[in-house]
Fold these 4 entries.
Entry 1:
Amino acid sequence: MMFSRALKPFLEKALSRSPVVLLNGARQVGKTTLAREFLQEKGYTYLTFDDELTYVAAKNNMTAFIENIKKPVILDEVQRIPEIFLPIKVDVDNNRIPGRYLLTGSANPLLIPRLGDSLAGRMEILDLMSLSQGEIESKEEKFIDALFGSQPLQSPSTTLSKENLYKKIIRGGYPSVQHLNEEDYEAWMHSYLSLILQRDIKDLAQIEKLTELPNLLKVLASRASGLLNVADVSRDCKLAIKTLHRYIALLETIFMIHLQNPWSSNLTLRFVKAPKLYLIDSGLLAYLLGINLSGALSNPMQFGKILENFVVMELKKQATWSNTKLNQYHFRTSGGDEVDIILEDRAGNIVGIEIKSSEQVNADDFKGLKTLQNKVGNKFIRGIVLYTGSKYMPFDKDLCVLPVNALWEKCWD
């Protein structure tokens, strides 16, 4: 089944002004499918470095390969031959034509040291993540813009039961799994992880003990939505801290994990500096933790960290196409007050979001948001507690409660 991707108009604009555009993201999020839509629409040639013959030909003589392929061209999975960025640079310096190269990559080039600034000023990078809930349901998502706008919020246009919400979270956003039965889903996830943790890691770095990575990923999954304590993970995995830092950096490079930095400002309050750890997809997280629907429904408190992971990543997806450009953080003071998500726009305006797995909310759930509100002052736009109930409810000045499905269901006038 084909899904309409919200990022496509932004990709078209980037190709209209830049000679090289890199569509970046984890494997199996739909990069190739989206890129191939330009084959007939724009007359692109398509080559993938997952094809062994293409890979060998490019490695044999990269300069000749780039000189002789027909342009405009889509080069798929460029992280397998990162050295090809230099001959692409030479070519575009001689042919500064917008849209000449559409690259896709399953590793972040900004985190691969040897790529450096080889295409600085010549390449735009767009991030494609797994499907958002709006993309799955063919709904336009403007939640972030609504949060920073002036319109009042309200209950979403439709309600969603906790069971159906949990189904969505456990399924995750990979396009290929949306209509698989449970047995096929398990087989797909197993094969997916094997491909990434074996071949893709080998392409990027010399890892001495590949067998340690699956266990590390499971340990990290068990700590998802919490502060990353490298020393504790090192003890659990029996890995040297230096080695662990290297492995974590690689997992971040290939879009398996996301580290959300703490928010700070010139405030007198001391902030905890550790990032929070998330898996790139809630379905992947649930798979690694062995959590199914019945387990989630019977223990909603344990499921809370998967819910938080889901919300964080849904917001990151929407941020790639929202009109409001922002950064995303977490907030935690040395006194223990915290807010799960801080959204900060370029003007320094702040929206705080707290996530609760319960269907009821009380005054204590706003404690961190009120601390943030007092410290930020007039830069505080609003604070929201997202919960698994069904109604919008104003709570205090610029504070309210919203159902989780407000992320993709219209919740404003």
Note: The chain is about 40% helix and 15% strand.
Entry 2:
Amino acid sequence: MSQTLVAYKKIWATVDLIPKGKVASYGQIADLAGLPGRARLVGKSLGHVPKGRKVAWHKVLRSSGQLAFPKGSEQALLQTGLLQEDDVVVLNNRVKLSEFQWHPDLGELLFGLKY
């Protein structure tokens, strides 16, 4: 298995742990997946999820809380709708991280990650 695929699987497994009503940043997911400084790899991996594999890509945002897609774009509207279904408030293409950012405890990570 390639190193890239191994990294992608770690990222997807980490994103899977984000609970309903919470979001995380690309950099936060990279750090939690053991890939510090690889925020762009997180974004890339979310664009390469295999068919049949569900990953809650919509819960991953920029470090400012902003959606990665341009305001009003089809992707931004889809992401906004999915976040709202998760009870996350999106205003002006942004989520208030002080209210909705995921702060996992050690137990969540130790018992939740399968890699």
Note: The chain has one domain: 3-112.
Entry 3:
Amino acid sequence: MASIFRGVIGLIQVTVERVGFDQDSDQAVLLLSDLSKSFILPIWVRAQEATAIALSLEDLKPPRPVTADLSATIIERLGASVVMALITEIKDEVFHSVLVINHGGRELELDSRPSDSIAIALRTSSPIYVADSVMAEAGIPSKTTEVQ
């Protein structure tokens, strides 16, 4: 089986620019930015998943591991490493992602929610990529974006 990220024409490396929380709902938004900060990709997630990402961005350790901490520990203890988190597509208005791990020289792609793959990538200091088709469809030029 061919690797999914090898089949993607272009990949854009991104960072988590900001996590914003909606005080009135269980929703939050992740703002991903390409490295040149030309585009912002907003991805709406549940507040719990956003909190896991915000903890990692702030380098805070909760008293008990959250799911992303557990997942990163399992990957490491099994002798594998995270290659990347990759936002692959938008289907029916839902972002899709894979977490690519390397185990013994073999790359494995694990279907994942973007929030989970991003949280694990942050914990393992692994890069985060977005397929250029996703950025073209949902990205917003940052010059026109007022991030608050």
Note: DSSP finds five helices and eight strands in the chain.
Entry 4:
Amino acid sequence: MTKLIIINAIFLFILSCQSNYSQNYNDALLLSEPGLYTGARALSMGNSFTSLSNDISGLLFNPAGIGLVNKVELYGGMNFNSFNNNTSFFNTTTNASKSSVNLNQFGLVYPLPVIQGSWVFAFGYNRAKDFNRTMKFDGFNSGNNSMIQTLTGDYNEQVPITNDLGLAYEIRNPITNEYIRDTTLINGLLNQSGGIKREGYLDKWSFAMSIEVAKGFFIGGTFNILSGKYKSNSDYWEDDTKDIYGINLPLDPADQTTRDFQTFYLNDIIDWDLSGWDSQIGVLYNWMDKFRFGASIKLPSYYTIKENYLVNADSYFGTGYGYSLNPAIDDPIQYDIKTPFEYSFGASGTFSIITVAGDIKIMDYTQMEFTEGFDYAYRTARQKEIDDLFTTALDYHFGAEVKIPNLPIFGRAGFMYRQSPYSDDPSEFDKKYLTVGVGTLIDNTFGLDVAYAYGWWKDFGDNYGVNVSRTFQDINVNNLILNFSVIF
């Protein structure tokens, strides 16, 4: 298994000590993975919407589909989501959860009067992605490793964090006083705990058009303006709960205040302002309102990230003394990320009161790229990581819609299978979703749609090193979307 997710940005801190950059493939992946989108009808059908797309959600699925709309339609909606994470860490399980509520969609679809065929414009707002995540862990690591040891060494001479905190000291040549290396008397056997909270969003302001160029054949395009925010706040503690490093052991032999080590604490914050753009083109063929076939290509998204990266650290000793990282690390930077192409293909059929649909999406995650903001050598190294770790992923979407006889009510259900972008990942790391929903259209004027999605998958992360301080995460998510529409 080649997957390696650093659950804290602590590893990024180590990188920053060496190169003044703290960005790696996780940043590119965060922006490249598709969100769930925000249309209730589409979500309740498992997002199998490439061959349908005949509402405001078509702006993000397949802009050609809005050509099927023949009346002016106004849309709006809200989204509730919760993220739950049961984390196992050295035989101890800790639960964490986080939820959010937001306005997630509004827009207008406007067909122009034409003599033949259709010509439809649309514009709208969609909250395309929610970064809501959380994780906590707490357990005793009986191994001879620790974050303190990881952060100690001559590669950190520029920012000797453990030295400043009284956790390590310099070894020098006794004759020449020449610096040799940093060392620490800490040798594992510490309780490790911490957590990470992530929040933020990605918004798309979309402008789209669809034209029926031949009977039943539509071509459309969307241009999206991207904006958003992202914040990751990580806490990490190492505590001497078993009094291994007691009152008779100063961690710095030249400083008696460093006797009786108690706690090491590290906090890092990544704060982004996001902006960018992307576009999408699509085609759709509608055969007698019975069968529809659609395809779309979302071109790469181009993001500019304005990042503030903050690191604080503290240590505490039984002597009553404590030390803080002074000054704290504050590293603002601006850089650009380019995401992969997304290829979607779908088909649907309507049989009496039942419509069934299926989609497949293809993404080559090795196309992720840092394009600006770093020197050539750093970009090349990050690209090698991306090439080595990632693969082409296939996402599958299936759904059905049933019209209840004699009632203006539609029942819907669907399933999504989103393959992990990491090469060689087993299936438990793939994201699975079950979806259901219901919709109604009153007097062919007022529409109300509700969708619920339940998703589950597994994940893991390393606080440092490889599989020496690893969290095993069992994740489930809940999404509830409410949309309304008015037809003029």
Note: The longest strand covers residues 261-287.
